[in-house]
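Thought: the user wants the 3D structure for the chain below. I'll pass the sequence to the structure tool as-is, report back what it returns, then summarize two notable features.
Action: structure_tool
Action Input:
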Amino acid sequence: MLPKFCGRGSFVIALLWSLTCVFIFCEFLIYYSAVFQCVWPDTVPQSNKGRESSAPVLRALFLSDTHLLGAIRGHWFDKLRREWQMERAFQTAMWFLRPEIVFILGDIFDEGKWSSPKNWEDDVRRFRQMFRHPDDTELVVVAGNHDIGFHYEMDLFRLQRFEKVFNVTSARVVTKKGVNFVLVNSVALHGDGCYICQMVEKELIKISHALNCSIQSNPMNERCLGVENFPSTRPILLQHYPLYRVSDAECTGEDSAAPEEKNLVFKEQYDVLSQEASRKLLWWFRPRLILSGHTHSACEVLHGETFLEVSVPSFSWRNRNNPSFILGSISSLNFTLSKCFLPRESTVISIYCFAGSLLIILTLFYFQLLKGMLHCVSCLVSKHKSL
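Observation:
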């Protein structure tokens, strides 16, 4: 019961203040409490301190599957809630962690595959607002099936529209601090001879040749003359689709697929790349690490007992209750990854429900409405017993 000297005006002020505090915590402070628990991993094992002490370390942040809702399927409140969550999470991470480069592994938009030019411009505007970043942080994206369409929907118009906005191509190398990242438009790896597929595959072969020449001990090899030069280190492969795997049955962790989904068999060229495309990528690049998205769940797979692939979960509450992103401390010789979890949507809802219920009870007590309601219930119970 509130003190008797507390007037109605003071009570209303206290009530509004309480609501404001709950709102500020759930919509702002909770992101700081989550991100403050994240730290950049140490990339240099103790056994290699002397050998790697001179290698510069790149701090890279990886996220995936933001799925910004569009004009067709996006309800206004759903868009507002999910986009605010991603904006606050990203901006908090930028402020506290200060990554040097950010990679988004596809499906940036939910309706890029069919959005009109006007809707596309609106989606791009909202994306730039949400994922604004400091000038000293580079933002790099790869295309996903929701950005340009599945293979049967993909065409030059959608592809070039995406590439123009984000200044990317379907196959390219991004090099930073001696680390080579190979970015692949995995939607174009169907292997059916389509024009875009042929163009991408031809460019990937060219990149593979240049990277292999850079690693060779004999740079004067005739086959390598006139080829673009890269740092002599194995690349990190970034794409939207995961490499081929049967299912998520072997995936573990709190952000892996739900138990009822883990044994579902993946469909090639829809859920994962085909076995043939996966084999080609591993043969061409022999990557020291593969990072992918698309499944919305976490997984670590060792292909051929040699090539580690990490599937990055969705960054949006719309796709999972516990979104996350990955922090990578990467040098030319080594890498270490750690995961940063964002607030659970269920936690935020529970806080709002608990606070709302408590404030309703206090309001009823203050206006003595609850006392009257309890008296009525007591009278009804007494009458029932007498009968």
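Final Answer: Structure generated. The first strand starts at residue 58 and ends at 63. The first helix runs from residue 8 to 35.
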